[in-house]
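Example 475, ligand arginine.
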Amino acid sequence: MSSLSPGCGNMDQDKNRQKLWGGRFKEPTDAFVEKFTASVAFDKRLYPYDIAGSIAHARMLAHTGILTQDECDQILTGLEDIRNDIETDNFAWSVKLEDVHMNIESRLTSRIGDAGKKLHTGRSRNDQVATDIRLYMRDSIDHITSELTRLMTVLVDLAEREADTIMPGFTHLQVAQPITFGHHMMAWFEMLKRDHGRFLDCRKRMNVLPLGSAALAGTSFPIDRPYTAELLGFDQASENSLDSVSDRDFAIEFNAAASILLTHMSRFSEELVLWTSAQFDFVGLPDRFCTGSSIMPQKKNPDVPELVRGKTGRVIGNLVALITIMKGQPLAYNKDNQEDKEPLFDTVDTVIDCLRSFSDMMPNLDVKKENMINAAKTGFSTATDLADYLVRKGLPFRDAHEVVGRAVRLGVEKQTDLSDMSLEELQSFSDRIENDVFEVLTLEGSVASRNHIGGTAPGQVRAAILRARETLDTE
Ligand code: ARG
């Protein structure tokens, strides 16, 4: 039946009255469009921030005399009651009310009456949602940086325990030079330290208040934005209303930091997967972090690192989604922005879970020292040390490289490591070689000789650990 029919028209108007914006519409929203455009299914998770933002806004409205203190008090009590309703599962979220903001506002009005209708004075959902997300992101960053600090501490502890443990270092995944396992763990620490810094940088730029920008141009009411900023712990009110209702840079920046972090964790994961294989057998993961195979009884699979490596894909995907959502938007707010939430929430959850799984798993790593030492003994990992030795004996480096190359070729043919060759054998390559050569050909001698800032010598690793602990203490 046509909506022009008088009876139906009245019914439609009734339906529209449920909408907070129903006034100018002649017919109800299409049922599918209602669902398609609603965000409440996912943005209800913002409720603590939406309530906090509304409380601050109401207090500012009373502070500036736009609302009476009594109206403000009713709003604050109403919002606290709603918080309680949500937390005790006494809140029916409605798709008809579109999003978290209108669900809460509508409930407020049905609870406290006219004062509830005044809460939206001088604001819009555009500045409201921008504020909610920033508050949510700020909390999420604080959670993530504290989880990151936990993992960094775990790595430093492990590095300290294994400061002297020797393993082969790789380039091109071929044995390169001996290193210490502690040094390797501290390489991971350095990556996480940069990640931590990136999240803090992002937090600084994020901590600016959009509220008061209203729909896009500001408001005609005499609001006090610095006051609201202070109530919500923002460093300042945003400078430009158009920019601040539409800006999602902070979300992109956060997701970029998260993508780099997970790229690091994916690389750690790849190493753990390799190291737990029968071919490397450098470390063992506790059974409770692994799963078996339904068909192959011998299998113990490193699922946690594999999943972390896999989840990196979705976080990078979320970054691409967010940056793509923004690229075609004219100023100011557009509905496209509603698409920012699911990728953001997913990234926050994924990052926290990945960090947590690593922090729980890494202290329980079974470090198989013997296997690592044996692996370092194969592959001529001290060949560079022999070349450096010859340089110290007066041979130019290029010539030394050639001499050692020939020695390695013999070693490959005879399947003997340089350190297992006799002095005579070694002297057949250069008469500069003397008995003291064996000191540099040992793995211990090799790592101990890399004794400068950033080197793998156990003493340097311990010094790096001390510096790391100082950084961790100041966080
Ligand atoms: N649910 C919306 C979002 O997430 C809230 C802002 C809606 N504003 C609007 N003008 N329709 O972006």
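Summary: The domain at 33-117 is CATH 1.10.275.10 (Fumarase C; Chain B, domain 1).
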